[in-house]
Amino acid sequence: MRRWFAKSLKRKLSLLILFAVVLPLLSMGIVSYSIATSVTEDKAKQAGMNTLKQMSDKLDFVIQDVENMSVFLIGQKDIQTYLNNEEGDVNSYSLIVGTLWNLSYSKKYISNITITPKNGNPALSTTTITNSGLFPLSQQYESVYKSASKWWSPLYEIQTSDGPKKVISLVRPIRDVSTFKTLGTLTVSLDQAEIERYLTGAGWESSGFVLLLDQYDQIMSGGDPSWLARTVGEVFPKMGELTETSGVLNVQRDEQPHTVLFNPIPRLGWKLVGFIPTQIYQKQNGYVLTVTAVTIVIALLLAMGMVLYFLQWVTKPLIKLTKYLKDLNPDETIPTYEVKSVDEVGLLVHSYNKLSERIGRLKDQVQLNEAMKKEADIMALQAQINPHFLYNTLSSIHWIALMNKDLQIAEMVGALSDFLRFSLNKGEEFCAVQQEISHAQNYAYIQAIRFPDQFEIEFFIDPAMLQTSMLKLLLQPLIENSLIHGIQKKKAKGHVYVHGELQDSQMKFVVEDTGIGMDETKLRAIQDQLALANRQLGMLSEVAKETKIAVTSYGLINVHRRLLLHYGAESGLIVESTQGVGTSISFSIPLGMGELAT
């Protein structure tokens, strides 16, 4: 099969173009289907969330209405009088009960309003309650109940003359408006069945359901009646806790995937939790998949027909050209062929006609390049004379300054001369530690004259390591970095400390300053650049061992790379900095990787 394809450009192009057409079409179909299914799912979730928000607003209105009504009742004059009077008044009793009954009758969601006096007078209630589950709840949540100015209870059951009812109650103390003394307790109960009608009549998915959770994540309404007064974690253990105020979850219920939406009722910490079976929008996804598949098949058939026609049209002149050039001898001069077209095939024949001329020009260019290379080598040899001229000139300036008794200029020129001589001397890469320290001191002395009273520098070097060999030009760039980026940007006078000590089988150097330091972002950026240099040089480590790497920059990255190339991955720079305190840069050199300086 491979040989059959290899013998024909037309076959290879056919296969390549078919792949180039088929793969994008399939990818486009997959992406289109994915987008369509995602949009369908998002719309279902958005519609569900909007429904939950509408339910939340309606329940929030009910809660606000009940709380406003409770404030009105607490301050009502007749109620205050009845609770302050230790002897119950029948007329007041009847009047207040009538008022309470009118309020509860006008609002379907109110099951009962009860006022319990503290002075022993008969309780005022719109419904005859034979047994109430509120008292055990108030004892269970005693700490919350007594410390709050109002308390919404969990779901509980009461026994009335009309039968049992499940209610949720707002409980709040009634205090004297003058003395703030507690006179009794007001209880306004919401009918759970009416709340249930709010949830079922909101237009939720027919195969889904909505739950109303209280502040303790207990189910107050919705779903199976057996779930009421149980926590959502007990009923749906795989769902976990709803720690967020609102959001979307995917859970398994009865081996069927469901999308769970939840939205808060912020006033009380209640939550509305809606369950939508995933199969609702998966049915729509099946229709989208069918349409997408049919579209792709039609597009593939059209594309294949156009590809075959295009290949026949393109490859026909190429086949003729191949037969024409089949017996061409590459050792002879390429002959000239007649050009009959102006398309790519014609340009190809025209290129063959110009091949001999181009080969001749390339030969001439190669000879010219060789001559220019030799000339560049001669100029490089001449350039090596310039450092000697520079040293001699600096030496002359040094002696003139001494003759004029200008010691500061003489010392500065002498330090500069030593600095340059060490930097350029014969291109040597290694030196003794003592020479490296002297070079750094010359640089620091020149900078101290240029910037008087801006910094002080101190060197603390173990004498036992002074004659040990090391890679040169490592400390000066680090000191320069401390001065430029740390000390000179600080208003007060700064200090630079250079430490060198022997630690086991290596020499450790530290350059630290008291400059402005770096914030975490800038420090992390530098550390990332050093790590990148580690990875880049790691790939070229075998080449770097045999190749002399020319140093063109003495910045931090260059020093780091030179350390890695000559001493390995464990010898790179370590940068530490604290903003407003200073910066510390350290590196270690293994002993035994260089000869003792003579």
UniProtKB/TrEMBL annotation:
It is a multi-pass membrane protein. Residues 312-364 form the HAMP domain. InterPro entries: Bact_2-comp_sensor_kinase, dCache_1, HAMP_dom, HATPase_C_sf, HATPase_dom, Sig_transdc_His_kin_internal. The chain crosses the membrane at residues 287-311. Keywords: Cell membrane, Kinase, Membrane, Phosphoprotein, Transferase, Transmembrane, Transmembrane helix. It is found in: Cell membrane. Pfam families: dCache_1, HATPase_c, His_kinase. This is HAMP domain-containing protein. It comes from Paenibacillus germinis. The lineage of its organism: Bacteria, Bacillati, Bacillota, Bacilli, Bacillales.
